[in-house]
Amino acid sequence: MSEIAAKAEIIRPRLWLARIVPYLLLQVLIVFAVLLGLDLLEPRDPDNFAVSEFSLREAGITRPVTLPQFTASRYSLADPPLYSGQFEFKADGAGTTWSVFLPRFSNGVEVAINGVTILDSRRDPTANRPDRNTPEIAMIPASLLREGGNDISVRLFVWGPLRGFLDTVYVGPDAALRAAYETRKLLFVTLPVVFSAWQSILAVILAIMWLMRRHEPVYGVLAAAMVLGVVQAFLTPPVPPAASSRLATVLLSSAPIESALIVASAVLFLGWRWPRYGVLLFVPGIIVIAGGLIAGPPLPRILFMLLGIPTVGFCLVLMAGIAAYAVFRRQDVVSIALGSAATIVLTCWAHDMLSVFEIMPNERTFVSRLSYSALLIAIGAGLTWRFARALNQVDSFAGQLVARVREAEDRLKASFAREEARARAAALANERTRLMRDLHDGLGGQLISIVALSERGQEGTSITDAARAALKDLRLVIDSMDDIGGDLMLALGSWRERAAMQLRPHDIALHWHVTTPQGLPLHPELRPWHVIQIVRILDEAVTNAVKHAAARHVTVTIETRNDGEGPYGVISVADDGSGFALGDDGEAAGASQTARGLRNMRSRARRCGAILELCTGETGTRVRLQLPQVFPDSDATVS
Known about the structure:
Elements: H1 2-41, E1 50-51, E2 53-58, E3 61-66, E4 69-70, E5 82-89, E6 98-102, E7 105-106, E8 108-113, E9 116-120, E10 136-140, E11 148-157, E12 165-166, E13 169-173, H2 174-212, H3 217-234, H4 246-252, H5 255-269, H6 283-294, H7 299-330, H8 333-356, H9 368-456, H10 460-480, H11 488-503, E14 509-514, H12 528-547, E15 553-562, E16 567-575, H13 592-608, E17 611-617, E18 620-626
Parallel strand pairs: 14-15
Antiparallel strand pairs: 1-13, 2-3, 2-5, 4-12, 5-11, 6-10, 6-13, 7-12, 8-9, 8-11, 15-16, 16-18, 17-18
């Protein structure tokens, strides 16, 4: 065991080096690439038209300066620094338009040619933010230019903790200066707006994802960070001496909160728990916001310089460390991409800090905001990619589930088919049993009677009647086997013909009444044995009218009724005979054969789930058979 532990201790450092060293080398390459890119992307201004020699009057003192040049930080616009210089103008006869081009300045400028103001950047609030690096260009009216020397003056309006800065001023043909201005505008105005627009769209997407998946707060945290970034990008600060909104000042100073939210989203994105002491990361931003709400400007700007910028840098270093740890533990593409994005932003932040502290005096170009938006977009893209991958996994699982459900459905269908075949076989066997019993009870009894009559030497008439009864019973069984599709009216139609033939020799008239258009309801569950029981009940009613009632008319009424619970059929057989007496139990009194016939009718009705009612008196007998709404599948419950 000790040898295994020793080997494990040796393997772990090697694994750590194998994972972290390539990652660190990649980050070093990224740092060099960013620095090289910043140098290559720095616009090249037309030096042929540079005006850099000025005299500066500041605080009552005039001295010569060479641009670019820094001035002291100020919180008052009274007596701004004034740069005065000259440029040469030579008319070429072609009416060429000249312009003044200012690549960089902090915070606002006012440019005058020969004593006439042609540019005041304070009219454009977006041009007065140091982090924007917004260039300005203004065309000089031809009436102001004179051959030879011309005066140019630049007032530099400075507000805030940063020192004022004025880069080299360029004066020359507009065609020669416009290209440099458009390049700077593309890099420092248009591109940040595009990034911020992407950021706002991604913020909406992430907010929707968070609303749909509340158990994953990483989407909501990152959406909140992106919203703050978009607000800082699009909200224009008030330009002094205009009244300053405290809310605008607070929102423009919310970068520390945004950085803390980015760290929180990275921790949650990597699947780790946010520590309790992590709330301390938001304290500097809260202090900056509280200072802005309580005191107003310029306190938020001062607090931002003292607390906000160091907090942003600390958060970036923390992000790089979190990403490096994630790469060591997980070794996945998302962690590497997150760490690379943090390295890019951290490098740009270091570049900006060197400019702020004038370690690079001629590089007052801030790129942190631009790279910060790129970091947010990179993290949002990573989250969206993870969400899309999760959706793909869900779709794959759903596809597998659908395949398994189809397999289960196929097995169930096969099982159902087997059960259905088994049920059909059982139903067929039951039908055979019932038919055999009906044949035994009906046809069998008739044949035994014929044999008995033959053995006794009875007359041919008795044997003939018995044979006809047997034939009638056989026809009944055969007719009941016809496929009537649940329509009992078809079976009753055949029975009507047989009943009419039975009544005709006795001069008894058959009256047939169907009171409803549909006759009887359809019953898909109707079986042949149901038909046999119903027809035999009707046969018994007609036979009783012929043999015992001395009737002259038999009326059959068929109707469909509905008492609110569903339709049901009713068949009535009434005669105008003498009737018979009923006992207290509702059975026929006296004649044992009639009583036995009534018991058989009631038994057959119960087997079908029907209700049999009998009314008899001096005016005749009426048998009323109320059919069920649904015929039973089995008669095993018959008492």
